[in-house]
Description:
- By secondary structure, the chain is α+β, with helices and mostly antiparallel strands.
- It contains 3 helices and 16 strands.
- The chain folds into 2 domains: 35-133, Immunoglobulin-like (Sandwich), CATH 2.60.40; 160-297, Immunoglobulins (Immunoglobulin-like, Sandwich).
- Helices cover 19% and strands 32% of the residues.
- The chain has a 5-stranded mixed beta sheet with strand order 2-8-7-4-5, with no helix packed on it.
- Helix 1 packs antiparallel against helix 3 (279-309).
- The radius of gyration is 28 Å and the shape is elongated.
- The protein starts with a helix and ends in a 9-residue tail after the last helix.
Amino acid sequence: MLANPLAVFLLLCVGVFLSGWTLKAKGADIRVTAAVHGPAVTSPAVIMAPANRQHFKSIPITVSGSCPVNAAYVEIFRNDVMGGSALCDGSGDFQLSVSLFSGRNDLAAHVFNVTDDEGPVSPTVTVYYDAPNPPPPASHQPNSGSSSGSSGAGSNTAVAPLSLTTAFLYKGYYIGQKVVWPLRIGGGTPPYALNVNWGDGQSDVISRGVAGDFNISHTYSARGGYKNSYTIKVNAADSAGQKAFLQFFVIVNSQTAVGPVGGIFSKPPPSLPGSHRWLWLAWPAYTVVLIMFVSYWLGEREELIKLRKKGLLKTRRT
């Protein structure tokens, strides 16, 4: 019975920790509350290039087209995965560089207004990336006396394509404020090397030993160009030579020009979906342990009561 108070204390601590992380995760997923919505986008963007069923042998490719009325920016999706974002220019057009998956890619332009309200999705344009054959996976040299076919286990394991993704918001930063942006890299053959071009003449080289989520960060010393924007381009490569590319933009302006609270500047940073997936496993595990502990305590209590009724257990008097 001496261990019960300690066990209760530990369970309470774990519960408080999980509750804190859950609230934090939910808070990070909320974009804007009580927002004033901008003018709605009622028609889709149109992808003018590349042509439907066009083949490519290198990446990234240029995707361009026209924006509808009230559109602020577009996101290009490849096979339902966001591949980049670009502002609509003064002529009502967009253009950005996009990476492709090996084989078939169904491109679609998702269009948004200044408050991230999405309009209709564009018609799909299908293109193909005829990727070069990846190098064969490294195999272990057989020991002397062994046959040439006894290479190490897993030497013929297929390698997933390299992927580089992010979440996007039409978000502003002030001059001198640190820009922190989430990225996710996966597939390919680690380690990974990334080059981040921040669009202001500065760049960072990043090395990642394993797949997963990570943040890139930068501080701008001047306002951006068109609509105060900077275009960020990220090139990634794995140890086998596979490549991936990502392009998006941020808005940077002075606080005196915007004011203390200014729409896109007060938004929380974007959050990658699935970043808190471990909570879906932690809460059921915690609940099972709690139920087991309570069941054990109730069972022990019932047994003690039965023993006392039968006179087999005497109550110690002080």
